[in-house]
Design brief:
Elements (H helix, E strand, L loop, with lengths): L3 H22 L8 H6 L15 E2 L2 E2 L9 E2 L2 E10 L9 E9 L1 E10 L11 E5 L7 E2 L14 E4 L2 H6 L6 E15 L6 E13 H10 L10 E2 L5 E6 L3 E12 L2 E9 L4 E3 L10 E10 L8 E9 L10 E10 L2 E4 L1 H10 L7 H10 L5 H6 L5 E4 L6 E10 L3 E11 L2 H7 L2 E14 L2 E6 L2 E9 L2 E6 L13 E4 L7 H5 L1
Parallel strand pairs: 1-3, 2-8, 9-11
Antiparallel strand pairs: 3-4, 4-5, 5-10, 6-7, 6-10, 7-9, 10-11, 12-14, 13-14, 14-15, 15-16, 17-18, 18-19, 19-20, 21-22, 21-28, 22-23, 23-24, 24-25, 25-26, 26-27, 27-28
Length: 492
C-alpha cells in the first residue's frame, strides 16, 4: 500500500507527462509551421524580425526561410505562408507571399499580352532563365521540384511598355529587376517586380528579320496595300533600293495599319503601338528624310485617328511615328516622337510642321505658330445659306490676335430668308490673348477660346453663355476656303 505522498507525486508526474505529449503531438489549429507559430498569431502574419539570417542558394524551400536570409542576390524582407492541406498533397505550401529586397541582372524571355486579354491586358511579363542568381521557390521534393511557368509581371509605365514592342510581342531581354515579390497560390495571381534598367531587348520579329537576310522565308505582308501611301525605289543606305508599303488590316472589327520596308534581300515590318487602338485610323502622309543627322534616311509617318468622343470627337488627331534607320534595321524613336508632340500647338500635323518641330524642338512655342497665322477670313465647317459663321483674323502677334466674328441663323428655310427671319451675332475688332496654346477672349461671363487645329484651320469654342440670337452657333472648325454661295456674305 502506497503512502499518500507517493501517490500524489506519481499522479502529478503523470499529469505533466500527458500535457507534454499533448502539446508536442497536437497540430496548430491554423495549420502554421513551428517557425510561424513562434513569430505569428495568425495565418497571414508577416515575419519582420528573425535572428541569425542565413545565406542560401537561389533555389529555396519556403518553409525554412527567415527574414534577412540571402536568396541568390536578394534578401528576404517579409513573408506570409499557409501550410499545405490534402487538396495539394505533396506541395510544401498552398500559398506563399514573399517580398525581397536588392536587385539582380537576369536574362530571360518576355511577352506582352494583347490589349483585349481579360487578365493582365497589355502588360509585360518576364520569365527568368534557369541557373541564374535569382530566387527560385521549390514547391515539392519530387518529381517537379520548382514552380512551373513562373512569369513575373513587370511594373511599367506606358512608355516603357512600348520598348518591349506592341501587344502580342515576344522575345528575349536582359533586365535589372528590384523589389521582387513572389505571389503563389491556387488562384490567378502573379509574381511582381520593379524594372530598374533595360540592358537589352531583342524581339522575335527582329530575329526573323535577320533570318530573312540569310535567305529564309520572308515576312508575310498583312492587310490590303494603301496605294497612295506606298512608294517604290526608296534608296535606303543600309537596305538598298526598297519599297515602302502601307497596308490596312481588318481585325476584330477594327482597322489596323501596318508598315513594311521591302528590300532586295529582306522585308521588315515597322512595329509600333497606336496611341488610341480603338479609334479609326488613316495614313495621312509619309516622308523619307534624315532626322537625326547620321546621314541615313529615316521614315516619318503621320497617322490621323478619330476618337468619336467629346465635342471635337469628329476632328482627327495626328500621331507622329518616326523610325530611325540603323545597322540592325528600323527602330522607332519615342524620344523624337515625344519631342514633336510636346512642342506642337496643333491638333493635326503635316510633314513640314513635323520636320520643323523636330528641328526646333522645345525651343518652339505657341507664340511662334500664332505669329504665322494668316490675316484673312476663316469659315465655319458646314456653313450654308441657312446658317454659318465667319472668323476674320485682322491682326496677329505672338501673344494676341485682333479678330471679328460674324454668325447668323435663318429660321424657316427659304421662306425665312424672304421674310427676314434671320438672327445675327457679331463681335467686332476684339482682342484675344494667349493662354497656354489658345487665344482667349473674355467679356464679362462670356468666354471664347480659339485654338490652332492645324496650320490651315482654327477651332472655336465658347463657354455656353448666351451671347447671340436663337439658333446662332459659333462652335466648330474653321477653314480658309470661303463658301461662294453663302448668303451670309451678302448680309455683311
Amino acid at each position: 500500500m502506497h503512502r499518500p505522498e507517493t501517490a500524489r507525486s506519481l499522479l502529478f508526474f503523470m499529469l505533466i507527462l500527458i500535457f507534454l505529449l499533448f502539446s508536442v503531438g497536437c497540430k496548430n489549429e491554423n495549420g502554421l509551421t513551428k517557425n510561424d507559430k513562434q513569430n505569428s498569431t495568425t495565418v497571414n502574419s508577416k515575419m519582420q524580425q528573425v535572428n541569425s539570417p542565413t545565406n542560401t542558394s537561389p533555389a529555396f524551400d519556403p518553409r525554412k526561410i527567415k527574414v534577412g536570409d540571402k536568396i541568390g542576390s536578394m534578401a528576404v524582407a517579409s513573408y506570409e505562408r499557409i501550410r499545405t492541406e490534402l487538396s495539394n498533397e505533396g506541395e510544401y505550401v498552398a500559398q506563399a507571399f514573399i517580398q525581397f529586397t536588392g536587385e539582380a541582372e537576369v536574362t530571360g524571355t518576355f511577352k506582352r499580352y494583347p490589349l483585349e486579354r481579360e487578365y493582365l491586358d497589355g502588360e509585360v511579363v518576364f520569365q527568368v532563365d534557369e541557373n541564374q542568381n535569382f530566387p527560385q521557390m521549390k514547391i515539392r521534393d519530387t518529381p517537379e521540384e520548382y514552380r512551373p511557368d513562373e512569369w513575373i509581371v513587370l511594373s511599367l509605365d506606358d512608355e516603357t511598355k512600348r520598348k518591349f514592342g506592341p501587344p502580342d510581342s515576344e522575345g528575349r531581354a536582359t533586365l535589372v529587376l528590384t523589389d521582387y515579390k513572389i505571389e503563389y497560390g491556387p488562384t490567378e495571381i502573379s509574381d511582381h517586380a520593379q524594372l530598374k534598367k533595360i540592358v537589352n531587348i531583342k524581339r522575335n520579329n527582329e530575329a526573323a528579320t535577320k533570318e530573312s537576310s540569310q535567305g529564309s522565308k520572308p515576312i508575310e505582308i498583312i492587310g490590303t496595300p494603301i496605294k497612295e501611301q506606298s512608294f517604290a525605289s526608296i534608296p535606303f543606305e543600309k537596305f538598298g533600293s526598297s519599297q515602302f508599303i502601307s497596308t490596312m488590316e481588318q481585325k476584330n472589327n477594327k482597322k489596323v495599319l501596318h508598315f513594311y520596308v521591302q528590300g532586295p534581300e529582306q522585308t521588315v515590318e515597322l512595329n509600333y503601338e497606336p496611341a488610341s487602338p480603338d479609334s479609326i485610323h488613316e495614313v495621312k502622309a509619309v516622308s523619307f528624310k534624315d532626322v537625326n543627322g547620321d546621314g541615313l534616311k529615316d521614315i516619318i509617318i503621320v497617322v490621323d485617328y478619330t476618337t468619336g468622343f467629346g465635342y471635337m470627337g469628329a476632328i482627327p488627331i495626328s500621331e507622329i511615328l518616326i523610325f530611325l534607320q540603323t545597322d540592325e534595321g528600323f527602330v522607332e524613336s519615342k524620344a523624337l516622337e515625344d519631342q514633336v508632340s510636346s512642342a506642337s500647338p496643333y491638333r493635326m500635323l503635316d510633314i513640314p510642321a513635323a520636320l520643323e518641330l523636330l528641328k526646333s524642338g522645345s525651343k518652339s512655342g505657341a507664340s511662334q505658330f500664332w505669329a504665322r497665322l494668316a490675316s484673312r477670313d476663316y469659315i465655319l465647317e458646314g456653313s450654308d445659306e441657312y446658317g454659318g459663321s465667319t472668323l476674320t483674323i485682322e491682326k496677329v502677334s505672338g501673344n494676341s490676335i485682333i479678330f471679328s466674328l460674324s454668325a447668323f441663323h435663318v429660321t424657316g428655310g427659304d421662306e425665312g430668308i424672304k421674310n427676314g427671319s434671320v438672327n445675327i451675332g457679331e463681335l467686332s475688332s476684339v482682342t484675344a490673348y494667349l493662354s497656354g496654346t489658345e487665344m482667349i477672349y473674355q467679356d464679362g461671363d462670356y468666354e471664347l477660346s480659339i485654338s490652332l487645329n492645324s496650320p490651315d484651320t482654327i477651332y472655336v469654342r465658347d463657354n455656353g453663355v448666351s451671347r447671340y440670337g436663337a439658333g446662332v452657333h459659333v462652335n466648330g472648325e474653321y477653314g480658309r476656303e470661303r463658301k461662294p454661295d453663302s448668303t451670309k456674305n451678302g448680309m455683311r
